[in-house]
Design goal:
With 313 residues, the chain is an alpha+beta fold. 48% of the residues lie in helices and 17% in strands.
Length: 313
């Protein structure tokens, strides 16, 4: 078996060449480190400045996202400069080209994440709603807790948290309940067909205006809307503050107040009723539509004949 001789001289020459190359690059490495440190310091400073300016304008979420994007963008530029300083043969354009090819692959791999991120940035820029607003999106309703680049966090009225992807919010309809200071509620009230409409409307309106939370401007109003089967329907509409707590508590007070007011003044609030008419199918006229009676008899003595008793009973 032949022995393998290690060429120690060649190995030492290579190590020496590496050391010489490293020593020659030390100044460049030092400058690159300084560039990276300066880039990090500059990125942190600009990021804090952007966040403070956004906070002063009440757009904390936008400031947080914009500050993070600017910070990492400056750090990336600093790293590219550091690489070009250490290895002058590598041009920034080559690095950008490599990043371009890589970004295509990353884009396909993380399509949903990037889509949500872009949607989050657009939501923060256009600001259709803010943190603290009460919205309805995709069947979920609650108060906006936080808007991130990936998702929007809602706190439902029963205390649960819902995380909605920003792409869903941006591409679908969103109802912003607190977009305006005031919001309107309504309820349909049925009164007796023989009751005075003007008196019923006056009492309903009076009951609504007595309730805490009902705004005077715009004023409450009552509108007759239907002649129903068992009642005349009047629609009551009133305005409250747009917050959910104000809407729901005022709604309960209005309904109770209207009931007490109408009931105390003798206004009937009928329930749906139905009448079932039984027809004796054993009459002699059964089957003769010209003689068969429908409904109640026409006169006191005109009553349905009793059922014939079967023979042998």
């Amino acid at each position: 078996m032949d022995e393998i001789d290690a060429d120690t001289g060649n190995i030492l020459e290579k190590v020496d060449a590496w050391l010489d190359g490293f020593l020659r690059l030390l100044p460049n490495i030092g400058v690159a480190i300084v560039v990276i440190i300066l880039a990090v310091v500059l990125a942190l400073g600009i990021s804090r400045l952007v966040r403070s300016r956004a906070d002063s304008r009440g757009r904390e979420s936008l400031g947080e996202v914009a500050g993070a994007l600017i910070k990492w963008g400056i750090i990336l530029v600093g790293l590219m400069l550091a690489v070009s300083i250490i290895a002058p043969s590598i041009k920034p354009a080559d690095i950008l080209a490599g990043l371009g090819v890589g970004s295509v692959a990353i884009g396909f791999a993380f399509k949903d994440i990037l889509q949500n991120m872009l949607a989050g940035i657009l939501i923060l820029l256009r600001q259709p709603f803010e943190v603290g607003d009460q919205i309805v999106s995709g069947g979920h309703e609650g108060t906006v807790e936080k808007i991130e680049t990936r998702a929007t966090f809602l706190k439902t009225y029963d205390g649960a948290r819902v995380v909605i992807p920003n792409s869903d919010i941006y591409t679908n309809a969103v109802v912003v309940k607190t977009a305006f200071e005031k919001i309107r509620s309504q309820y349909d009230i049925g009164v007796g067909c023989n009751d005075d409409w003007d008196e019923a409307k006056r009492l309903i309106l009076e009951a609504a205006n007595e309730c805490e939370g009902v705004l005077e401007d715009p004023p409450a109003e009552v509108i007759p809307i239907a002649l129903a089967d068992s009642s005349n329907n009047i629609r009551l509409r009133w305005w409250t503050k747009s917050e959910r707590a104000s809407v729901i508590h005022t709604f309960g007070r209005v309904i109770e107040s209207v009931y007490r007011k109408l009931d105390g003044n003798g206004i009937d609030m009928p329930y749906p009723t139905s009448v079932v008419l039984w027809h004796d199918q054993t009459e002699e006229t059964d089957g003769d539509r010209r003689k068969q009676r429908e409904g109640w008899p026409a006169g006191p003595g005109d009553v349905p004949k009793p059922a014939r008793v079967a023979s042998g009973d």
